[in-house]
Amino acid sequence: MKNILFLSSWFPSKVHSTLGNFVKYHALAASKFNKIYVLYIVADDSVNGYQIDSFKENNLSITIVYFRRGFIKYFNYLIAFRKGLKFLIKKKFLKIDLVHMNIMHPGIWQALYLKFFYKLPYIVSENWHGFQDLSKYQLSYLQTKLIEFGFKKSSMICPVSNQLKKCMLNAGFKANFSIIPNVVNTNVFNFQNDKPATKFFTFLHISTLDDSIKNVSGIIDAFEKLEHPNLILKIVGDGPIDWILNRVKTLKSSNTIIVNKEMKHQDVATEMQLADVFVLFSNIENLPLVLIESISCGTPFISSNVGGVAELHNNELGVLVEAGNVEELTIEMNNIIKNLNKYNPQKIRQFAIDQYSDEVVGKKFNDLYIQLC
Q: Is 80 exceeded by the pLDDT of residue 91?
């Protein structure tokens, strides 16, 4: 059993409770086979100086350093990281075997710091869709060079999809690659055998509600065109909802569109269990965790064919449509209403268990740790 230090550019905290939740799920999966210590630093201008929060969650040991940004913000990040590292090593009497970095930009400097000053090897799990076209993000020269150096000095890069790996290679990044997908807690996102009978057919969408990425407005437009009776569209997210509420007010389907703010993990699972179909109509994606969670609940999906979505799709799980094509989405929403009985919830769920469960993904990480340590 190895001691693995998990670092990340994103991780759930009191600043943002859902940011990087997929990183946390990777850490929980890896903790089934190894000792995982999470260290995360996050700017929080509500604190004075540096505040260290250390706690246990299941098998994870999590240390979060909150700090107020100063005039030289990068200096504050470095101090926060050093304080967290010192706290973690001294308190846990910890000898680290391997660093597991998550999300290359902007936090890769942390793994490089440990590589050069502590001689620790590191791997990187990557889920950021930005690698599909880095030119859109106006990265500075230093940021670009840090990413290039991060690839070069890594022991392994672990994109969550083959499509993301291809994007990295096309961008000229060279490294050893091992694809390890997102993970789902199949105990929380499970199949509900006694699903209550209802006359309503429910479409569900859950996301950050960033319309430029998730195209929530496209889902609403498609739903508005449906002519079947007794339909409901539920929209849930951790982003702003006022723009959705204002848009819905003007529609004939306004009484059948339900909009809710961010929900707890278990409540999200319940919504997926109760829904008939999950809908994702994103303009850009990677390997969406919400689709994996949906199929773990036995719920089929309609999704735009972007990023790595095709890699988790087969005809027994759902339907793919062209991104931005509202007419095609409308057609497929109509079709799935008529043909929902062709989808077998048990088979859908079993696919998620076989490909994305804690045991499967955790073992992939364990095999990689053994190989590199």
A: no
Please, is 323 exposed, middle or buried when counting C-beta atoms within 10 Å of its C-beta (0-12, 13-18, 19+)?
Answer: buried
207: containing domain: 201-355
Closest C-alpha to 289, from 76, 65, 125: 125
Q: Say whether both 269 and 279 belong to one domain.
A: yes
**pLDDT at residue 70, rounded to an integer:** 74
Q: Is 257 helix (H, G, I), strand (E, B) or coil?
A: strand
Q: Say yes or no: 58 and 151 in one domain.
A: yes
Tokens of 174: 């060279």
Sign of CA dihedral 42, 43, 46, 47: positive
- Whether residue 106 has a cis bond before it, omega within 30° of 0: yes
Task: Report helix, strand or coil for 59.
Answer: coil
Strands 3-8 and 35-43: parallel
User: Do the domain assignments include residue 337?
Assistant: yes
Which whole number is the average pLDDT over 295-304? 98
- Per cent of the chain over pLDDT 70 is 99
